[in-house]
Each structure stands twice: as structure tokens, then as C-alpha cells.
TrEMBL record:
Organism (species): Sagittula marina
Keywords: Magnesium, Metal-binding, Molybdenum, Molybdenum cofactor biosynthesis, Transferase
Keyword Transferase: yes
Coiled-coil parts of chain: none
One Pfam family per UniProt: MoeA_C
Name by which UniProt lists this protein: Molybdopterin molybdenumtransferase
Cofactor dependency: Mg(2+)
EC number: 2.10.1.1
Family named by the database record: Belongs to the MoeA family.
Cross-referenced NCBIfam families: Glp_gephyrin
Highest taxon of source: Bacteria
Amino acid sequence: MITVTEALDQLFALARPTGVEKVPLIEAAGRILARPMSARRTQPPFASSAMDGYAVASAAPGDRLTVIGESAAGHRFDRPVVPGEAVRIFTGAPVPAGAIRVVIQEDVTRQDSTILIGDRLDSGDNIRPAGGDFAEGAQFDAPRKLSASDIALLASMNIARVPVARRPKVALISTGDELVMPGETPGPDQIIASNTFGLHALLSSEGANPRLLPIARDNATSLKHAFSLVDDADLVITIGGASVGDHDLVAPVAEELGMQRAFHKVAMRPGKPLMSGRLSGERGAMMIGLPGNPVSAMVCGHVFVLPVVRVMLGLPPVAAPRLRAPLARELGQNGPREHYMRATLTEEGLTAFDRQDSSLLSVLGQANALLVRPPHDPARAKNEVVDYLPL
Ligand SMILES: Nc1nc2c(c(=O)[nH]1)N[C@H]1C(S)=C(S)[C@@H](COP(=O)(O)OP(=O)(O)OC[C@H]3O[C@@H](n4cnc5c(N)ncnc54)[C@H](O)[C@@H]3O)O[C@H]1N2
Ligand code: MOO
């Protein structure tokens, strides 16, 4: 069995970036910007007022100034202002030449076309300099996942379309005679396919484009039929049938179909029977075979599938980011496999659930962290600091 790090390295070597497409900015939130952008204009393009008030060339308490015109947002006052004069100005409007500050309207008394400066003036000039936010040509780095703030910034740079990574197409195949879809009526020996739905949600949230294929039954013909439907998927994920039982057919069938296997079995818990390789054929999609136990499939989703999707989206090949927190309760010694324990993180620290069987989705649902224990980690006392993956 290989380690989690070795498995990740092999997965990263198999993952191919999907390429780039251009999308309107309005559709770009959450997408991965593929190439750096540069601002197409300076913002603000002119010195502008930060407040509603009067633009002046000089002002001291008690001064009387003559109001000579108005500058509003979108409509500048086109003459210079000189000492003794003031221009009525509003937030966002261009500051006229000669003005050194904007006195806010609360600090003046207006009478017809004259203003009297009050007896206290704050120190700010209330002028936003041209280019104070960014200058034309300013760089916006890539690759990066575009947040709502990024979209606002790109819009103000006058960028209407952006190059983003194409969403990886992922075909999801559940395997097993026991499975029916949610909403169907299961037979007495059947259960509901849950992993496929969990994986679909996980993949969508990371920017992939997942698609559920029909459930493959536990025979080679049905599984081959499912594989025949993967079409132009970039990544094929099977769920279940990965272990050593008589009905675990994914590895032999995939190999019969020409899959070049990179590895099978990883020293982790849950998730041991994980496999990966590349399917044969023109496009040769990457394949990941996940274990069927529901929590195993979801843990492998966080630990392996999401980092692979990120590489396909052009992001760097890095493991799922880990954080550290103290233990709120002691832990016994770990066995030979890296253990991802469902846990809760509260202000007191991390508490692993007592029940860690890989079939228990209800425990996964209550967890907000996967506490990570290295192979053979010794017993740990309360308050010792350990690694975890946030969920
Ligand atoms: N003799 C051994 N038996 C097992 C070993 C082993 O090393 N030696 N490994 C165990 C481990 S660890 C795991 S994990 C499982 C993985 O087995 P498979 O990947 O072959 O999964 P299945 O047998 O098909 O299913 C396991 C379990 O999960 C349920 N399942 C499957 N698919 C779904 C789905 N889409 N939604 C919900 N539940 C699903 C299935 O009904 C089974 O209960 O093997 C151990 N055995
Ligand atoms: O490793 Mo299995 O994935 O523990 O249940």
C-alpha cells in the first residue's frame, strides 16, 4: 500500500488541465481565472470628491466664499477655482482645478451664493486622487478563484469577459445490485445510493461539471455499459466495487477496457481500496475508483478528488489545506493507516466521535472537521495540537 502523499502525487501526475474558455464577467463568479488581467483604465480617472460639500482653493474658519458653480457626478465644473471662491460639489464628482479640499456641507452656512465657513474644520481634504484605487495597466493575478470582490474589481477595470478554466466534466458511476436512486422504492435487500449525490455536490461546489451515469449492477456487462457512456468526460469516478470481494469488479473490468492502473490501495482509513489510472482511447480520461462505504467515498472526495479537480482547473498541485487545533479530549494510539476521524471543532478544541465506522453518514453529517492522525501516531493528551481538515 502506498501513502496518502504518494497517492496524491500519482493523482496529480494523471490530472490534466482542461483548457481555457472565455465567459462574460456576470457568469465568472467562482470560476478560476486562467490568465492575468490588466486594468483597462485608471480608477478614479480624475480627482473626485469623497463628500458632499464645497470645493475650495483655501478655507479658514470665518471665511466667506462665493459659490461660482456646481460639479456633480457625471457633470464636471470646467473652470478653475481660486481663493475666495467655492464650487458646490457632490460625492464622486470631479474636483475642479485649483481646489485643495472639499469642505463638507455640515461645516458651512449657506446664504444665496455665499458660504460662511464654520469655526471647526476637519483635517481631511476629502479628495480621492486620480488612480488612488488602481492605474491603467495594473495587474490582476491568475490563476485564482474569482470571488464576488474580484468580480467587482474586474468590472471597475472595464473588463467584460474573462478567460477561465473550463469546468472539468466528471462522470459518476455507482456500482452495486443493492442500490436504487433516492425517491425509488428499494427491495428488501436494497439501500439508497447516497455517495453519488454527496460526490456530485462536492464536485459542483468546487467548480466541476459532474454527471450521474446509470447505476452499474454487479456484473461485467452492466459495468462495461456504464463505462461506454462516459463520453467526453475528463474524469470518471466509480464508487464501490473497489475491494477484494467476488462482486468487486471495477479493477478487473476497467483493466479489461484498457485502463492503465497507477495504484490500488492507500494506507488510509477510511478509503483503503482507492484506485486510479487512465482509461484507454483517444482522450483517455483519468479514472478514480472510490471505495463504496459512504464515508470512505466522501473522505476520499475531500482528500483526493477535490485537489485533483483544482489541478484540472489550473491551480497548483497541493493537498487539501490543513489547519491545527488543540484536542478537547484525549485520543488513543493510531494504527498503521493515516486516519481521517470525523470530529467536531468548538471553542474548546477538537473532539473525535466515538463511532468511526465508515458506513455512518449521520456521524459525518454532525462533523465539521476531519481530524488527521499520521500512521502509528502515539496516544495524545487533551490540549495537544493536531491537524484537521475543515469540512
Ligand atoms: N476482506 C476484506 N473486505 C473488505 C476490505 C478488505 O480489505 N478486505 N476492505 C473494506 C473496506 S476498508 C472498504 S472501504 C470496503 C470497500 O468496498 P468496495 O469499494 O468494494 O464497496 P462495496 O463493497 O461496493 O460497498 C461497500 C458498502 O458501501 C455501500 N455502497 C456502495 N456504493 C454505495 C453508494 N453509491 N451509496 C451508498 N452506499 C453505497 C454498499 O452497499 C456496502 O455497504 O470494503 C471492505 N471490505
Ligand atoms: O477504508 Mo474503508 O474505506 O475503512 O471503510
